[in-house]
């Protein structure tokens, strides 16, 4: 596997991990006791921390990519092992 493929797969896993991590730890202004501003939605986050989301996404994507790469090297699960797949 070349470095470009490694970077591309890791980047895709990081983006997916970031979207997975977005809702964790978010509180609305009702939960934090803040006053809503005029025009602010009731469901708007009151404590959004993008650095924390990025850190969590990085850790999750490192774990997922580590498992993916270990499977790539060791061959634990291949396409031929998937049910309903027939090689041509």
Characteristics:
single chain; 88 residues; mainly alpha; 55% helix
Molecular shape: elongated
Output the helix-strand order. Answer: HHH
Quaternary state of the chains: single chain
So how many helices?
3
Strand content: under 5%
Please give the number of β-strands: 0
**Overall average pLDDT:** 91
Can you offer a commentary on this structure?
The protein has one domain (3-77). Helix 1 (3-21) crosses helix 3 (50-74). The protein has helices spanning 3-21, 29-32, 50-74. The model has no long low-confidence stretch (mean pLDDT 91). It is an all-alpha fold and 88 residues long.
Give a brief rundown of this model.
With 88 residues, the chain is mainly alpha-helical.
Detail the topology: elements first, then pairings.
Layout: H1 3-21, H2 29-32, H3 50-74
């Amino acid at each position: 596997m070349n470095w470009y493929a490694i970077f591309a797969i890791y980047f895709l896993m990081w983006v997916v991990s970031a979207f997975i991590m977005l809702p964790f730890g978010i509180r609305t202004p009702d939960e934090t006791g803040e006053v809503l501003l005029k025009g602010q939605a009731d469901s708007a986050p009151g404590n959004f921390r993008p650095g924390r989301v990025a850190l969590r996404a990085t850790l999750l994507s490192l774990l997922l990519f580590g498992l993916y790469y270990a499977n790539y090297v060791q061959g634990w699960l291949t396409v031929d092992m998937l049910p309903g797949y027939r090689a041509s």
